[in-house]
Structure formats: structure tokens, C-alpha cells
Amino acid sequence: MAVSLRLTKRLEERLEQAARLAGVSKSEFLRRCLERELESDTHRPSAYELGKDLIGKVGSGRGDLARNSEKIVKEIIRGKARRRRYGTTGRAV
What is the DSSP letter of 40? Predict the structure, then answer.
């Protein structure tokens, strides 16, 4: 089966050099490269898969987030306002 492939000038030069060093034609060199790549059953992991052990799950500890989201947001806003107003001491600033 014939396959047509467009290469950049730089890639074509590199292919010619690599095939010459291997002592084979460009077609044979490409066949070997394809065989090697297709035979390797190694799955290349995604960035997430590589780092998933380093990424921790951060949970709120609350199981009612979906049901009470508006109430929870209001509590958070009130808490921030309270801290701005009274600081960490509990007295008005």
C-alpha cells in the first residue's frame, strides 16, 4: 500500500540523514519507525495521570452543598463581613 506524506524541508533532511546513517532507504527507515511505534503498547499517560498522586482532593466535608448552595454562600459572605468588621478579636474595630 502506498502512502503519501508531506514533510517540512527540515524533517526531510533529517529523514535522509537518519536513513543514510542506518544504511537503508527512506521508505525502509519510515517502515521501521512505524513498526516500532505501533508495536509499543505503552500508553502515554496524560499530565493528570502523571501527577494525580500529587493532587489531593479538597473537600468541604459537607454533604449538602448541592441542596443548600445559596444558604452556604450567604454564610460565607456573612462570615467574611463579620471578620472585616470585628477582626479576629471579636471586638468592633
Answer: -
